[in-house]
Amino acid sequence: MKYSPNEDLFKDTTMTFGEHLEELRRCLFLAVLGLVIGVALGMAAGKWVVEFIQLPLTDALTEYYQQQAVTRFDLLEEDLGKQGLKLPYTTEHFNELVMDERLLPDVVWVEPGTMPGTAAPPPTAANAAAQSKLLAGPRHAGMVPLFLWRPAAESDKLRPKSFNAQEPFFIWMKASVVAGIVFSSPWVFYQVWVFVAAGLYPHERHYVYIFLPFSLGLFLAGALLAFFWVFQPVLKFLLEFNSWLGIETEPRISEWMNFALMLPLGFGISFQLPLVMLFLERIGVFTVKTYLEKWRIAIFVIVVLSAVLTPADPNSLLLMAIPLVFLYFGGVALCHYFPGHGRKRTAEPTAA
Asked: Of 44, 62, 72, 251, whose CB neighbour count within 10 A is largest?
């Protein structure tokens, strides 16, 4: 017959309850020690981490301002075309400069003849009439557009800003701590699984060497997914929404860093879902049958948690919720195909 629910799960181990507590204390101390060493390494790499984490924002802002420049050029070309005037660039040439050469233009308006290449047109009646109609209005009447180009990398618009002297220091500290967590995560996960192994049956302990890299891989997969595939569509949506509202975006370094540092950690931790499900199934909180019967509720909870852990936009919510739904059913499969002690072991016959 099978073990009863009240049976001592640790009776096959050589450790008492007090020794389990001592093992917990030892593993926590070693995990914290590894975390401290990881944070020290993170401080050494803190400047590089801050620069690296800004890359998705810089790329998204570059694409945003490129699209803005192309849109404004098309509107300006259409407006001048109605008045029989032409810009000094064709659409193809302008797009090549912006998209391929990664240059951004600043447009200023000058009086004809005051800058090289902007000589006043011959004083014919037709030219005089055209000049008088140039962008009708008091500000641009009689003026011509002049394009000033600069590399996108040198544009002030692409640089996140701080609004007080101590803000960059706290950003560096936060980046160092998060980098330290990532650097020390293999050691911390190892200590967690060392403690878990102390409470397993002897024939189950070899599974620690399977779940340890599995757990670490899920954490890193979640963090990398957030950094390389979630940031871009989320930033694109938010920037386009700001543009739709007519609001000029000026990123603040602290707000961006909070978003860029916390989102990967949230993804990495949430990707532990299959192992959490396995743990809850092993201690009797849920069963495989319950997981399958309550899958609709589980998906609803996943969506709600994704909304809490991500910014308030549909892209990031879906990019977290969809992988978690697959991981949920992966967790069900893990619980089903990885036999627990109750399914594998039978109690020794009792004496008559």
From this structure: 251
